[in-house]
Every structure is written in C-alpha cells, then in structure tokens.
C-alpha cells in the first residue's frame, strides 16, 4: 500500500510549480504525489519527474477531458480527438516516471445526456479500448473515475464505472473510486469496493466535505476492510481541496475554506491513513 497526496491541496492554479509541494510532501512522509496533467506538457515532464524523484517521491497522475475530446460523442472526429488527447497524457505520465493515470476520462466533466446514456457508455468503452496498445507500450494503467451525479451522469456509481472499464476489454483499464463521490452515490461504499474487485486500480480519500479523512462522518475503516478483502495493494491518495478564493478551487466549487491550513491537513491525513489503511496489504 502506498500513501499519496494530491498536489491540488496546495495549488492555487493548475499551472503552479509543483517542486515546492514535493518538498512539503516528502517532509511529511508521503510515498508520492498525485499531479494533475493540466498545465504539464512534454516539455516539462522529465524535469518534474526528476524533481519528485530527488525528493524520494513516486508520482501518479490525473487528468480530465473537455467537450472537444468526448469519448462518448456521436462525432467520430471528436472521439478520435479523445484518443489523441489521452494518448498524449499517457505519454506524459510515462515521461514523469509514473505508472498510473486516472481521472475524468470516460466523458467530459459536467456533460449530461441521460437520454442517450446506454449508447454513450458503449462509445466510451469502445473509444478507451483503443488506448490498450499505448498503455502497454508506456507501461501505464488508466483509471476511470466515478463521479457524483452533479459532475457526471455516466459514471455516477462504482458499478457504472466498473462496467465501462470492463467493457473496454483492456487489462490496463480499471476504475478510480473516491470516497467523496461514493459518499453521495453509494448506499454502502465498502460494498461497492468489494464489487469492484480487481477492476479497482486507484482509490481516493477525503471526508464528506472534501477535508481531512477521519474528521467527518465517512466510514473509512469499512473501506479499509473491503480493500483488504479484495487484495488491493495500490495507491491510497488523499484528494482534498480545501482552499477557497483561487482558480483551482473555483473549478471544484470550493466556496469556503474547508481546512485552515493545507500542510497541517496533509500531516493529519497521513497519520490517519497509516492508522486505518496501514495494514490493508
């Protein structure tokens, strides 16, 4: 089991230099940092990867798609663009020295078309299946993120997310499940994790308000037990967004400070993660 922290906890904009964040995360004791690829291109990837490695950190990556790269689109050119955009993201992930890429990759964030949900899910799986070769070539695993109903109508539940991942037919494509989203959509999040089984390739934690795990009402010990049962030994990454008043927070509808200090929040989080998830593997 590896414990990570999303760099977005500290970022005011997605283009912020991550190097100072690496130092903070390493000093706290995290195994790695999750980086959003928004703002990171092939020109900076190797340098950023070295900066993380110099701090003794591994990296994992996340990304999201816009409407111009919608894997569910009825327009073949738009679907082809989704493959091109994700192929570049997979290449950048490899250049960073990371082995995992996850995020909003089945459909763009905030795009809703429930009347065509079945065919869109089929198109998403067909589109993402075209990435199998480059995922193998770059030695990267892709995780489709389950999002709550206010962010997506396509992958709101773990079951919907896993179904698309499985329908791709690729052993390198799975699901990213996140306690924040499961708290909204799943009656029993731990049961959703058990049902995901080996389709689960990435796991995010934050409490019900997107703050420090263990500070709210989410049942993390139940999730830890489920992860233990399915033999999950991958990343547990704290994806917390706690600062209001900056561009990155506006993207995520953070309108008030959730925690008073991000570094203190990260320190408290790692302590809790070790206590609850430390014996999972």
Write a compact overview of the structure shown.
By secondary structure, the protein is of the alpha/beta class.
Name its key features.
281 residues; alpha/beta; TIM Barrel; eight-stranded parallel barrel; 15% strand
Please explain how this structure is put together.
- The protein is of the alpha/beta class.
- The chain has one domain (62-271): TIM Barrel, CATH 3.20.20.150.
- The chain contains eleven helices and eight strands.
- The protein has helices at 19-28, 45-54, 76-95, 117-129, 132-138, 158-167, 179-185, 189-196, 220-230, 247-251, 262-277; strands at 2-6, 32-36, 58-64, 100-104, 141-145, 173-178, 200-205, 235-238.
- The chain has an eight-stranded parallel beta barrel with strand order 1-2-3-4-5-6-7-8, surrounded by seven helices.
- Helix 9 (220-230) links the parallel strand 7 (200-205) and strand 8 (235-238).
